[in-house]
Amino acid sequence: MSGWSHRHVLDLASFTVADFATVLELAQRFRALPVAGARRLPALQGRLMTSLFFEPSTRTRTSFELAAKRLSAEVQSFSPSSSSLSKGESLLDTARTYVAMGADILVVRHSCTGVPHSLARDLDRCGERVSVLNAGDGLHSHPSQGLLDLFTLARHFAPEAPTPESLRGRRIVIVGDVLHSRVARSNLWALTACGADVVLCGPPTLLPDCFADFVLAPPPGQAADPVAARGRVQVERRLEEALPGADAVMTLRLQKERMQQHLLTSLDTYHRHYGLSHRRLALCGDGVPVLHPGPVNRGVEIAGELLDDAGRCLVEEQVRNGIPIRMALLYLLAAT
Ligand code: NCD
After folding, report:
1. CATH classification code of 17-141+319-335
2. Is the peptide bond before 295 cis (omega within 30 degrees of 0)?
3. How many angstroms is it from 124 CA to the middle of ligand 1?
4. What is the pTM of this model?
5. pLDDT at 183
6. For 22-52, what is each residue's pLDDT tens digit?
7. Which listed residue, of 152, 186, 246, 328, carries a Cα 20 to 30 Å from 145's Cα?
């Protein structure tokens, strides 16, 4: 694909607007293909995708596996508990074992920030010709989720031609546990690159003020920002201030497993202040959609009735869109 220069997909801070456009365009084409039971595309015939998940996952892992199968790739899955890691083998040696078996793409999820990055660097240094695709590392980055959220929003605003341009000037509100969310961080890079303004909303314990500066400089280790002009990021404490004028609202799971100490008085109080419901959404327009990356704490970050309202809540649409987005990423890394 012309202009595509990434050997690995590790985060979205290094993506140009053209990269986002390439992924959205391919995903739109893959999404138009017939699904279950239909013919597979031969694009990745003879390629092997290995998923290395060191953290639980419902959606991401199966979505990558389905995406690979739809492109005719072979799929191999690794389970840490029954592997030689428990005998002391290093992660790099484990990864190289799979590369020796022929893996072309390693899809890696790990609870520690930076693991997919250092694995990619070490494999490059060893001269291995394999791509690493980050499926979520610690609190840091979850590029395929950021891209599927971007695709879902772009399709909402421009169903026939979902491009980065369809996000320009939109006000996207992200509510909740931003501090522990790699999804929010990936969305911040993706949305602002496409010219959307992001309003973050949550209590100070889950959303420190410094998030307003999040995209002002590239992350450590990256020399320059590949995007000339990004949308703005703003922090609001009250939903009543954040919601008016919103074009879309994304809420995040309270990531209790990543919280170091008690950051909330109670789940009830949190729901009262930050929980989304039909009543709350009266503060923004009728057609304003709600997104959530899942898994959901029903009745905490979002009311059950809103979650079940498919006309308003795009959670299932996000899951559906995850497959063509991951097909696009696998294609870009391994089909050429
Ligand atoms: C997210 C994750 O694992 O980062 N889920 C996902 O991949 N769909 C968000 C979460 O765990 O809350």
Report:
1. 3.40.50.1370
2. yes
3. 28
4. 0.95
5. 98
6. 999 999 999 998 765 666 899 999 999 999 9
7. 246
